[in-house]
Each structure stands twice: as structure tokens, then as C-alpha cells.
Write a structure and sequence with these properties.
About 45% of the residues lie in helices and about 10% in strands. Strands 1, 2, 3, 4, 5 and 6 form a six-stranded parallel beta sheet that branches. Strands 7-8-9 form a three-stranded parallel beta sheet. Helix 7 packs parallel to helix 8 and helix 12 packs antiparallel against helix 13. The longest helix is centred in the last third of the chain and has 25 residues.
């Protein structure tokens, strides 16, 4: 009887303590929080440049290409800086393939349809169409793992089927050749965002890395934004000037995105997003997809790159007749001034700032893998996203916070853009006269 009474008392005590919270469940580790978040909300990357890599490396020829393993892909002169004429192509691993994407829980991607801003209108339009074709062929060649998507419903369906939802984003307004008809055609073939500029200012929008010509958007540039809204194409403000950002936010009736950008308060690069613009993004309902490009995220690298450019110019001015001497002097300067290393912690700093300034609902990820995000310590390729989420969890981000960063915020914005387009489907097409 005594044992029965003792057992009953122990049970009652345990129940009381559990009810009162004194016997709380063990706290989850950062690794467990991150894993739980990524199980419920896979990663959606806003900007990966696989099409650019394959244009440079393979000239869009996919014969023999295996997207399950790109670690043995031969490079070309752009990616292999020490290549010698006639030499066997050096192996320069890509950062993205289906194997590493699975390891990284990457299950939605805006594949960047990038073309050089140095191309003329005709060349840019052609190259854009070729990049769209290339990426669609890759998707079609991997039907068990990839699903081409042009709306949010397809993204969610692809996730349920265990496939990578594959969307297209055109990187640079020069891709439309100054024609809203081309913009509409890009929409018809599945492009769902367009970056208004790239490195160079277009005839209708100022870039963040070129001399301004228009004080932001021209009247035609504002019409481009309006027509993108009407169609349901996301307005991407990465690469544009601060004034272009403000003009687009003023005009856009739908949420905008920054497909691969960072906080200017952390690193002063002109391509990054100022606090003034961040405040407007919050009012607009848009998202900033944080970039992994070392020169944009690391304030040390931003300064170092500027100093190196200055030293290079100085040596060329001192030795215009001796390029070998100028090159040797620059090499000596680099040895004396080693380049700072950008790390995962720098990425976290940008995320933290955006969260503190405008909230968790406005943060996503846009790695720029295979487009320049090389050398970032802790985030080498598409297998590494979990490391970032573990670090965020370690800093106190909750599972729900991480789910929003992983893909929830992108999904919300795409749905909002689609809703805006549906509400305005009766609006008149925005027209512009032909230029020739």
C-alpha cells in the first residue's frame, strides 16, 4: 500500500510540476531549430547565375552536362584567370548542382537570366532569350528533381512533390531593348522578375555603379514599373541607384524585391540599400534578399577594393611604359595589404540590421552563387545554407523567423504581385512607340 501511495504522490507531483512549467521540455539547440525550420520551409534563393556560367563555360551547349555534379566543369578565361593560350581548360568548380542543392535544402530558385550590360539592344534581347531557353532545357532534362514555375501555386505544388521550383528572373533592364512589347514577351515565356539595371545606366534608369543620367527613373522607366505591376512581374531593385530605388518604390503598386542586395549601413557600397530606402520597402511590403558577394557584404573588402583600384591607377601612371613594373609593384602592395576575408558573420550582420530596421517580414536570401559570390568563408556553395540558419538560431532567431527568411517572405511577395496583376487585368496595356 505504501508503494502505491508513494507512486500516486509522485505522479501527482510530476503532473503538477509539468502543468506549472517547472518540468519544461529541454531547450532546442540551434541546430534543431534550424533543421525544424528548413523541414517546414525549404530555402528559396532569389538569385543564382547558373545560366551565366554555362554561357561562359559551354557557350550554351549542354551536351554532356550533368546538373547532378558540376564540380568537374571546365572553366574559361573569365573563371580561370591564369589560363594560358592553348592550355587545357582548368577545372573551376561551379557552386550549384542538384546534389548540393538537396544538401542545402534549396527547393526554390529564381534562376538569373543575366546578359552583359555592354551588349546593344538587339544583342541583349537575343542573349536573354537564349538564356531563358538554356535554363528551360536544364529543367526539362531533370524532370524528377526540377519543376518550371511561373506562379506561387506551382511553387507550392513543386514543394509537395519534392522538386525544385524553378523560376526565371531577367537581370538588367537592358534585356528588353527599350521595348514594353519585349517585356510582355518575357512575361509570356515565364520571366517573373526583372532587375531594372545592371552595372550600367540604361536609357531609362540609373544604375548604382554608373554615372547618373536621369536622376532615377525617366517617365518611360516609370511606365516600365507600371507595366511590370500590371503583368505580375516583380520589380527587382538590386543594382540600381538609390534615387531609382526611391522612384520605383513611389510608383510601384505591388511589393518590390531586391533579388540580391545588402544593407548600406553595414557596408557602404553604393549598390547596397540605404536605411531611407529600407523604410520605404517596409511600407511597400517588399523584401531584401541578402547577397553573399564578399565585395558587397564586407566593409573591409569594399574599402580594400577601392584602395587597390587606386594603387593600380597610381602604378600605371608612374610606369606607363613598363606594365611589368606596374604589375610587380601592385603585387607587392597586395602582399603588404592582404585582402580581408568575408565570412558568414558578415551575412548575419546584414540580416540583423534589416531585421532591426524594418522587421523579419522583409528579409530573404539571394546568394549570387555562380555569379561572383566566391570566397565567402562559411558559405561556399548551395550545400551551405543550413550553416547560416544555425547561426541565426544561435543569435535568437525563432523557427518562425527562419521560415520567413527561408522562403515564406518570397512566397508572400509573389502572391501579392499576382493578386495585384489579377486586380488590374482589365487595365489598358502600357504602350511605347517603336524606336526604329
Amino acid at each position: 500500500m505504501r508503494h502505491a501511495i508513494t507512486g500516486a504522490l509522485a505522479f501527482l507531483l510530476s503532473t503538477a510540476l509539468s502543468t506549472s512549467g517547472l518540468l519544461a521540455a529541454p531547450a532546442q539547440t540551434p541546430e534543431q531549430i534550424a533543421a525544424a525550420a528548413l523541414k517546414e520551409a525549404p530555402v528559396w534563393d532569389g538569385h543564382i547565375d547558373v545560366p551565366e556560367q554555362l554561357r561562359d563555360r559551354r557557350h550554351n551547349v549542354l551536351k554532356g552536362f550533368d546538373f547532378h555534379d558540376t564540380t568537374r566543369e571546365p572553366g574559361d578565361d573569365k573563371w580561370n584567370t591564369d589560363a594560358q593560350p592553348g592550355a587545357k581548360p582548368k577545372i573551376v568548380p561551379m557552386q550549384t548542382d542538384l546534389t548540393r542543392m538537396k544538401q542545402g535544402h534549396l527547393q526554390a530558385v529564381f534562376w538569373s537570366v543575366y546578359v552583359s550590360a555592354a551588349l546593344n539592344d538587339q544583342q541583349a534581347v537575343q542573349a536573354t532569350l537564349e538564356q531563358v531557353d538554356l535554363m528551360k532545357r536544364i529543367i526539362a532534362a531533370n524532370p524528377a528533381e526540377m519543376q518550371f514555375c511561373a506562379d506561387a501555386a506551382c511553387v507550392e505544388k513543386a514543394w509537395k512533390a519534392g522538386k525544385v521550383a524553378s523560376l526565371l528572373g531577367a537581370e538588367g533592364g537592358h534585356s528588353i531593348g527599350g521595348s514594353l512589347a519585349v517585356l510582355r514577351t518575357l512575361h509570356e515565356i515565364g520571366v517573373r522578375y526583372m532587375t531594372l539595371t545592371h552595372f550600367k545606366t540604361t536609357p531609362w534608369a540609373d544604375s548604382g555603379t554608373d554615372a547618373p543620367q536621369h536622376n532615377g527613373l525617366t517617365p518611360f522607366g516609370k511606365d516600365v514599373v507600371r507595366e511590370m505591376n500590371r503583368l505580375g512581374i516583380l520589380v527587382d531593385l538590386s543594382h540600381v541607384s538609390q534615387k531609382t530605388m526611391m522612384d520605383a518604390l513611389e510608383v510601384s503598386g505591388a511589393p518590390v524585391i531586391f533579388s540580391h542586395s545588402n544593407a548600406q549601413a553595414i557596408s557602404g557600397h553604393p549598390r547596397n540599400v540605404s536605411d531611407e530606402v529600407l523604410d520605404k520597402v517596409k511600407l511597400n511590403g517588399g523584401v531584401v534578399a541578402v547577397n553573399f558577394y564578399p565585395g558587397y557584404i564586407s566593409p573591409g573588402q569594399y574599402t580594400w577594393n577601392a584602395n587597390r583600384a587606386g594603387e593600380m591607377a597610381r602604378q600605371k601612371a608612374l610606369h606607363p611604359d613598363r606594365p611589368d613594373v606596374a604589375a610587380a609593384a601592385l603585387a607587392d602592395w597586395e602582399k603588404a595589404n592582404p585582402k580581408p576575408v568575408a565570412t558568414l558573420a558578415d551575412v548575419v550582420a546584414h540580416i540583423d540590421h534589416i531585421k532591426q530596421r524594418i522587421g523579419i517580414d522583409h528579409i530573404a536570401l539571394g546568394s549570387d552563387f555562380d555569379g561572383g559570390s566566391v570566397g565567402l568563408q562559411g558559405l561556399p556553395d548551395t550545400s551551405a545554407y543550413p550553416a547560416l540558419f544555425v547561426e541565426l538560431a544561435r543569435k535568437g532567431y525563432t523557427k518562425e523567423d527562419l521560415k520567413k527568411i527561408a522562403s515564406g517572405n518570397f512566397l508572400r511577395v509573389l502572391k501579392a504581385a499576382e493578386a495585384y496583376a489579377a486586380a488590374h487585368k482589365g487595365d489598358a496595356v502600357v504602350e511605347n512607340p517603336t524606336s526604329f
